[in-house]
Amino acid sequence: MIDSVLIIIAVMMQPAKTDNASTALSGGAADLFSKQKPRGFEAFMQKVTVVLGVIFFALSLALVYISSH
C-alpha cells in the first residue's frame, strides 16, 4: 500500500509535458530530434518513479509466491 501511494505521489509531482492537439494528430514528427534528456528535478523524479515501479513489481511477485505456498 505504501509503495502504491508513493508511486502516485511521484507521478503527480513530475512536471507536465505540454503538447497541443496538432502534435497528437501529426504524431509529433517535428519534435522527434529536438528531445533533450531530462535534467535536475525532472530526471530525479523519473528515476524515483522507475525505482518505485520496480519495487512494486518485486513486491507483487513476492506476494504471489508467498500466497501460493
From TrEMBL:
Q: What job does this protein perform?
A: Involved in protein export. Participates in an early event of protein translocation.
Which GO annotations describe the biological process of this protein?
intracellular protein transmembrane transport; protein secretion; protein transport by the Sec complex
One of the record's GO molecular function terms = protein-transporting ATPase activity
Listed A to Z, the keywords are: Cell membrane, Membrane, Protein transport, Translocation, Transmembrane, Transmembrane helix, Transport
GO CC annotations on file: plasma membrane
Query: Per the UniProt record, which residue ranges are transmembrane?
Result: 44-66
User: What is the name of this protein?
Assistant: Protein-export membrane protein SecG
Q: What does the UniProt entry say about where the protein is found?
A: Cell membrane
Task: Determine the domain of life of the protein's source.
Answer: Bacteria
Q: Which family does it belong to?
A: Belongs to the SecG family.
InterPro entries, per database record: SecG (IPR004692)
Q: How does it sit in the bilayer?
A: Multi-pass membrane protein
Instruction: Extract the Pfam families matched here.
Output: SecG
